[in-house]
Amino acid sequence: MVDLWIKDGKIVPENKLISIGISNGKISIIKKIAPKREEVIDLKGSVILPGFIDAHVHFRDPGLTYKEDFRTGTMSAANGGFTTVMDMPNTLPPTNTPVAFKEKLKIAHKKSLVDYGLHAGVGKLEDIKTTAILGPASFKIFMDQLDDDYLNKVFMEIRNIKEDKGSIKPLITLHCEDKEIVQKNTQFQRNKHILKPEIYAEARPPKAETKAVSKALQLACEYDLNIHICHISTRKSLELISKAKISNSKITCEITPHHLFLDSHFLNKCGNFAKTNPPLRNQDDKLNIRNLSSIDIIGTDHAPHTIAEKNNDIWDAPPGIPNLETTIPLLLTEINRQNITFNHLKSLLCVKPSLIFQLASKGYIKEGYDADLVVVDMKKEDIINPYNFRSKAKYSPFKGFKVKGKPVMTMVRGNVVMDEGEIYKNIGKLAC
Ligand code: DOR
Ligand code: ZN
Ligand code: ZN
User: Fold this and answer.
1) How far apart are CA 365 and CA 109, in angstroms?
2) pLDDT digits over 44-58, tens only?
3) In whole angstroms, what is the distance from residue 97 CA to residue 103 CA?
4) What is the pLDDT of residues 212-226, one digit of tens each?
5) CA pair distance 146, 183, nearest whole angstrom
6) For the chain, how many helices (H) and strands (E)?
7) Which helix or strand (DSSP H or E) is residue 100 part of?
8) What is the DSSP letter of 324?
9) Is 220 helix (H, G, I), strand (E, B) or coil?
10) Would the pLDDT of 162 be above 90?
11) What span, in angstroms and rounded, lies between the C-alpha atoms of 199 and 210?
């Protein structure tokens, strides 16, 4: 018995119309023509894609909910076409103990509109094992905050868990910036007492990232663990990773829309609204759309702050850009410009994230998979206006960008959670 039919959605790149029968939140049947007299949503030929998966968001819940919470964060996700999000552990308290992890699961369950996973942090070594049992999406390591000695101990601990408990396959996600280089350069630049935002890029230079990436690649080999390198920002990092991947299949990497589309001039143009870690790079160092074919996934690194916080000076304003509602329009625009293909988009935001984070029921429009779907209007033109975000963070360095292509409907396990910008239902659950 089919609960709902989605009629006449256009799958791409095939350019064929299909109808999708949904039962119990799953895609139960795909046909050319939907039967009559059943509950139907008629897409009238609009493009339908698997729901997008964002493996990198910061929802600030608990503890920092004045910036964002699980409800507003997932409203922002639904509005941006994302059906699964994975939340980072730098909340208050940080998600680095079983108690904090369980507490965040409860919060997410109560407030989420879309499905979710939670990354765990690393605090006390003895908490790693007990947290691993709860099924975190990964253990997230901020290399800009940890010493090498502790880093080694964390890898050792996670390797031991893997050997002990065969069923647990722990993944390590890494923010790669070298602590010592960042601290030394930040101090040096701060002492100049210059408050021009461009100076921030020099406080965290490319070599801070490449040194940390090299270290992460070496640790992955040494401990034989899967690692995922978050938000790479330089060509050199991609070169190092691509070389390491030749002999090690357990390495993956990610890029954000801001590192892909913006350069360090935006620090000048947008001030602290373009401040992020790692910082935006100059044209010579930065990655661009031609590099996307060597990168596994796009993560938004949705990192909301308040405008009041961003109005501090360049050193005291917090880093981070809210991206859940800009990423898909920006990428659909690139499809319209023929710079990327639908297949590539699906790989970066559906197939590969589901593979890396082991979400067996997500990532495809196929029978048996969750009915997580997004309908996009490829002709809809818009100008990015942060005032319209569902996120609490109503700022963006992409403000004023012209885009063509927009998510117009988002469905999570057969439930419409966004229709033409209207937000419905609260049905998110732990993604699997
Ligand atoms: O820009 C960033 N913002 N980089 C990070 O690593 C953390 C994030 C945040 O939580 O605001
Ligand atoms: Zn980071
Ligand atoms: Zn982040």
Assistant:
1) 25
2) 999 999 999 999 999
3) 10
4) 999 999 999 999 999
5) 12
6) 14, 17
7) helix 98-111
8) T
9) helix
10) no
11) 19
Active site positions, annotated = 301
CA-321 nearest atom, ligand 1: 1
* Ligand 1, CB within 6 Å, residue ranges: 58, 90, 175, 276-277, 303, 318-320
- What separation in angstroms does the CA of 364 have from each of 49, 306, 347, 358? 8, 36, 10, 13
DSSP 8-state class, residue 89: S
List for the chain the helix, strand, coil content (%; round to 5).
35, 25, 40
- Of all protein residues, the one whose alpha carbon is nearest to atom 10 of ligand 1 is 303
Per-residue pLDDT tens over the stretch 299-312: 999 999 999 999 99
Q: Give the span between the Cα atoms of 300 and 76, in whole angstroms.
A: 12
* d(CA 142, ligand 2 centre) in Å: 7
How many Cβ atoms from other residues are within 10 Å of residue 364's Cβ? 16
**Beta-strand relationship, 16-23 and 4-11:** antiparallel
Residue 30 confidence (pLDDT): 98
Sorted by where each starts, the structural domains of the chain and their CATH numbers stand as: 4-42 (no CATH), 50-358+390-401 (3.20.20.140)
Query: 0.70 cut: is pTM over it?
Result: yes
